[in-house]
């Protein structure tokens, strides 16, 4: 197969930032993706419906003329989130999901949740509305090893929370372990899981062997190879639980190549080429549309996009820039360390 055509994909987990960074990166998503679930971890975070509406307007204003892209807005769940404000924002069609960050788990998560009991009333309202909760699934306890934080979160937080709020629809965001895959698989139709492009490609050796590679550092941190293989198996399985959420997270290069480097991989420009490479290596190119274009809309109860995206395999490697220049400084693209031959042709 030298060419495949799939319904235009969506990105079910994306960081677009704001201001000059937003202006510099938005075209990289809009070029290939029709819609994206927009993460609310700005400074200050997007907490209310009014803030989400204003952020949506800024995103659409930053979109280059002639490009189509639909930002699907989320609210950042805090311990003081008002269930009525959530219901109004959801019922108006503006907000598609809420995001749960355990406080301190990742970039700009300080306003996140410390006491999960405090958010139960909001979660109960969300269960009534059918609104998904997108979960950053890592505990933050200092005594829990960073490589174990996802598995421990499932046992200590996620499973009890789902039992406490029956009917709550949950997306386990950016799963990185076989434990995450197994739990997602066991959860029935109200439990989904996004998988990033980079976690299908790197394991923890990529970050640490032969010198520290800050551009491979993200959260949740990449785990052992056996976990990466479980993710590849899930992504290429065709099971409705698993769908693409790139977690493309731009940071200026100098804040990544830093004594305290930021977490995040910038994959929006080359994600579709990377995914075609991974799926082809698994003899699963026929599953790419299911993972990138079909399972996400089904979970979010939205239609699959009408238009298409065509990927063609070239004889020579496809060139990508090393960095995306933005008004907030250069952003280094995720480099898989191997050549890419699949090229996107949009119609
Ligand atoms: O690597 C990450 N970067 N993980 C996250 O959870 C947040 C994101 C960011 O906002 O930079
Ligand atoms: Zn993220």
Chain-wise SSE layout:
Blueprint: E1 3-7, E2 11-14, H1 19-30, E3 35-38, H2 49-62, E4 70-76, H3 83-91, E5 95-100, H4 120-129, E6 133-135, H5 149-164, E7 170-172, H6 178-185, E8 191-195, H7 204-208, H8 225-235, E9 242-244, H9 253-256, H10 271-281, H11 288-300, E10 308-313, E11 323-324, E12 331-332, E13 342-346
Parallel strand pairs: 2-3, 3-4, 4-5, 5-6, 6-7, 7-8, 8-9
Antiparallel strand pairs: 1-10, 10-13, 11-12
The chain binds (4S)-2,6-dioxohexahydropyrimidine-4-carboxylic acid and zinc ion.
Residues 15, 41, 106-107, 136, 218-219, 247, 249, 263-264 line the site of (4S)-2,6-dioxohexahydropyrimidine-4-carboxylic acid.
Keywords, separated by commas or semicolons:
TIM Barrel; 347 residues; globular; binds (4S)-2,6-dioxohexahydropyrimidine-4-carboxylic acid; alpha/beta; 33% helix; three-stranded antiparallel sheet; binds zinc ion; 11 helices
* Overall spatial form: globular
Structural class: alpha/beta
CATH topology: TIM Barrel
Q: Which stretches are low in confidence, meaning pLDDT under 50 for 5 or more residues running?
A: none
Main CATH class:
Alpha Beta
Bound molecules: (4S)-2,6-dioxohexahydropyrimidine-4-carboxylic acid, zinc ion
**How many strand elements?**
13
